Amino acid sequence: MPSSESGFGKHADEAGGSFPPVSPFLAGARSRCPRCGTGALYKGFLTVDTACNQCGLDYEKVDSGDGPAVFIILIVGFIVTFAALFVETTFKPPYWVHVVLWGPCILGLSIGLLRPFKATLIALQYRHSAVEGSVESGAQGDDGEP
Ligand SMILES: [Zn+2]
To answer: How many angstroms does the Cα of residue 48 sit away from the middle of ligand 1?
Structure first.
């Protein structure tokens, strides 16, 4: 599949520029451009900008989908569940303490992790030239007949 079908438009080699490799996890943690690692990815809290303000990488077709939310649900659920179990078995507080403790904790962790997780998935999408799934026509030997 030609890389021009990537959701990011032109890659570094096609754009004529040369960029050192950027770790998708570092770029994601800093919410930076997946190609140059210095330009801002967001123009708001979670709104992806139209293009990188440093290297011009097109962000128009970027779509991380529900991926960040799924990872955050699993990670925050794991952390809060085991923290609540630890507090319950160790201190045996009244139930209102759990509500006061874990409600803000869930909100804070979820909102705080959403931005870097979304940026990391976008950077991984760029690194692996991920595109939407499609059915290739003319597939050989996979028409369902023996
Ligand atoms: Zn950039």
So the answer is: 13
State the pTM of this model: 0.77
- If phi > 0 it is left, if psi is from -120 to 50 it is alpha, else beta; for residue 108 that is alpha
List, for residues 90-113, the tens digit of each pLDDT value: 999 999 999 999 999 999 999 999
CA of 47 to the centre of ligand 1 (A): 16
Q: What is residue 129's predicted lDDT score, i.e. its pLDDT?
A: 84
Q: How far is the CA of 106 from the centre of ligand 1 (A)?
A: 32
Rounded to the nearest angstrom, the distance between the alpha carbon of 33 and the centre of ligand 1 is 4
> Exposed/middle/buried for 30, CB within 10 Å: 0-12, 13-18, 19+?
middle
Give the tokens for residue 30: 């800093």
Q: Classify residue 56 by its DSSP letter.
A: -
